[in-house]
Amino acid sequence: MLEQLLIFTRGGLLLWTCQELANSLKGSPVNALIRSCLLEERAGDSSFQYDAAGAAYTLKWRFHNELGLVFVAVYQRILHLLYVDELLDKVLQEFSLVYSPRRTEFHDFDDTFRQLLKETEANSQQKRGVGQQNSRKVIEGKRQVGHIEGKGTKSAGKKSSGQTLGGDDEADGDADGKAKVFGNGKSNGKIGNGVSVRNANGNSLSGSSSDDDSIMSKNSHETAFDVSKLKLRNSKVHGKKGVNPLEAQKPSSKEDVGKKKQTKKNRVWGDAPPPSKLDFTEPRDEAGQEGPDVVPIVTDQGLSLMDKDEEDDGDFEVDLEEDSAKERGDGEKKVPTKKGWFSSLVQSVAGKAALEKADLEPALKVLKDRLMTKNVAADIAEKLCDSVAASLLGKKQGSFTRISSTVQAAMEEALLRILTPKRSVDILRDVHQAKEQGRPYVIVFVGVNGVGKSTNLAKVAYWLVQHDVSVMMAACDTFRSGAVEQLRTHARRLQIPIFEKGYEKDPAMVAKEAIREAVRTQQDVVLVDTAGRMQDNEPLMRALSKLINLNEPDLVLFVGEALVGNDGVDQLTKFNQKLVDLSTTGSPRLIDGILLTKFDTIDDKVGAALSMVYVSGVPVMFVGCGQTYTDLKKLNVKSIVKSLLV
Amino acid sequence: MAADAEEEQLLLVSSLRQWDSWKQLQREEVALFSTFGVLFVTMVFFYVVIRVAFRRKVSNTILLVGLSDAGKTTLFYQLRDGSAHQGSVTSMEPNDDEFILHSESTKKVKIKPVHIVDVPGHARLRPKLDDFLPKTCGLVFVVDALDFMPHLRSAAEYLYEVLTKTVVARKKIPVLLACNKMDKITAHSTDFIRKQLEKEINKLRLTRSAISSADVTSEISLGVEGEPFKFSQCVNQVSTAEMSALNGQVEEVEHFIREQVKP
């Protein structure tokens, strides 16, 4: 059973919770969801797992970005509730109808919810019967038509469950077309329904393929709805026009217009026969008439794909323009470019109704590519873009803004949020705290081979010494020959005591003795150098896990190169994973911070910082940016964000 | 000669005609663009006029800041609607509204509305604070008095951050330390909270000045060098208040708000 369903604003005010399901949730799964998922730019995920004492929940959520609402469903993890997604979508639709920003109580929603819950539960039961699937779809299709007819534009925003499930493509395209007739594409914006949008586009692009036509007409026969069919035809024609002049700017407009007018006329005439006519004659008829029309469109498509990158904005802006505007544009016999310019002006002044997935996609793709050229790991760039899309879908676009700039602003905000540390990075403060408690502050440096652990350990030591903190080094790299000598050289240059026990010793024990020594000599900080190890090297990782769990350091610093791309993510996740897997205690220590080295070598390709912070959720504590002891910096978040997006 | 002249004349006429038609074309273009130009200029003019006419002379923005779970959102709705509604969850966006305080809504006299912004306390959302600070005339720093000690350090860090913001120091924005959840028996007293925060900030002063060398931002040093930090040393006024947002005991906060924004 569903544990709880909550509706709240992005501001944090609870608007509605289900009274009947008043099961007291253990812990605070919703707050955990917001803090560790939604605010960490992981909103693109599909679900969130919450573990607390005696409870294991799965949470699913939906955003209504235009109204700033969040819908969260909580259920026991052991129950695989299949209807939760469907239920959330339905609740989102229904609630957005009754919602008004000034109201804070929605007790009247109880009944609606009860009904929705019953409906979806019944649906999910029915769905198990495979044989019933087809009949259900037909019924749903009919219901949708009824909805649209009855409620006009308002209900065009609704989606029948069949669509949200993405069960059958043709039905999707069909319903979408109809929704467009009434709501001018509003329906797409309400929910991020990628499937249906894509379908609609596909239809209007390919347009002429007789297959689609036959299916469409068949569907409209089934529903026996003459007017809608006519309008469907119209909308289809418009759709094609919208694509045409923009995607192919060069072809002579006059001829095109003339041709189109003709085809349009013909098609209306072709549609005129009563629905009782035999099905198979119609598609053949249409295919024949559209014959001459087919060729230029195909070539146009090729062209548009070629200069798609350059023409992104104009492309989708007109694609979603209202039908009337298009007709006028054509009628006025204007040059296509001028029309595009004019319509984009109108659009930029008026603002757009709601952002749709198709609107955002080109801009997001550009942004994703840009992030990847800045050395951000591929899957992380992908996840970020998904999350940004989730936060923008259905939002109203302001006047005088372009989609690319809206997306850019959202991404900037997201990046700033990710890189802003969620805990203090003030190590000196922690050192003083530890000093008050009469124990040394222990920092362990871990990382793969050759990233600069020892060098940066020396830099940190230098920085600490500069601030009147007594430092001791512990040479726990008992593996690589020369490591101890290297550290000893640093210690001598910095006038810092060093604790060493030679090679072939257990590093965990060396560290332990070093800490004991530090307590005895009242040192404030112990810097533990460890051997570099590849993340897949099991014996070495086991040794590291032992070292960390035995000595319980105050800070585990992961030293990573700024040069790495995708591999940095792998290193960090594997290190964390191994620390969890190989630990013997119940609550394993994880990596607390990142030290990014070789930052001076990467110019503006600062993506590794983002990848590592995103994947681990811990802040970048230091940045190593040179060869001398003074070359240690704090991460400047704003400049990173700037160079990522330039 | 005559033929030449005639030819010349013809040429001239034809070229003139061409010129005319070209000019005609140009004129249409010019007309179109000048229309837009005039439109644009008028719009800009109106915009400026409206901005000048309706410019807000005194800011009336009060910010509610503090850690997550301190009770900012509850306080916000308590001030606005006089009720905490059905509770709240962690905020993802600021709550931002301009209204007349709920306790004053029964008065007949016309009262100046207050613009109150509840800035989320989650550390990742703190950069949002900078957007609101320039037009702020008062800060309410909400502290959880019940669960105070575990969060002392992070609260002190946040408060230190707020107090050292250039805008806060330069504009001398008054800060109210609002100790929330005072209705609970185990809640700490305001005096204790103030002293603990002062002590923590005193420590922070030492360590933070050490770090800032790497950072470009010119931080403001708090208090007097060589003396233990006291809130009374701040350039801006820092006062304390008791409240219980859940029960609606927010009179002291309302009083503070009305001191900053005269009705």
Structure description:
The complex is a heterodimer of chains A (646) and B (263). Chain A folds into four domains: 2-126, Beta-Lactamase (2-Layer Sandwich); 189-350, no CATH class; 353-419; 427-645, P-loop containing nucleotide triphosphate hydrolases (Rossmann fold, 3-Layer(aba) Sandwich). Chain A is built from 27 helices and 13 strands. Chain A has helices spanning 29-36, 84-98, 109-128, 133-151, 153-156, 161-165, 169-183, 186-190, 194-206, 210-223, 226-247, 253-271, 281-306, 312-319, 323-331, 336-350, 357-373, 378-392, 403-419, 427-436, 453-466, 483-494, 507-521, 538-551, 566-581, 607-616, 637-645; strands at 2-9, 14-17, 48-52, 55-64, 69-76, 441-446, 471-475, 498-499, 525-529, 555-561, 593-597, 620-624, 632-633. The longest helix of chain A has 26 residues, at 281-306. Chain A is globular and about 75 Å long. Chain B is an alpha/beta fold. Chain B folds into two domains: 1-55; 61-260, Rossmann fold (3-Layer(aba) Sandwich), CATH 3.40.50.300. Chain B has helices spanning 2-53, 72-81, 129-132, 152-163, 166-171, 190-211, 251-260, and strands at residues 61-66, 95-99, 114-118, 136-144, 175-180, 238-242. In chain B, strands 2-3-1-4-5-6 form a six-stranded mixed β-sheet, with helices on both faces. In chain B, helix 4 (152-163) packs across helix 6. Mean pLDDT of chain B is 84; it is low at 212-216. The interface between A and B is large, with 40 and 38 residues.
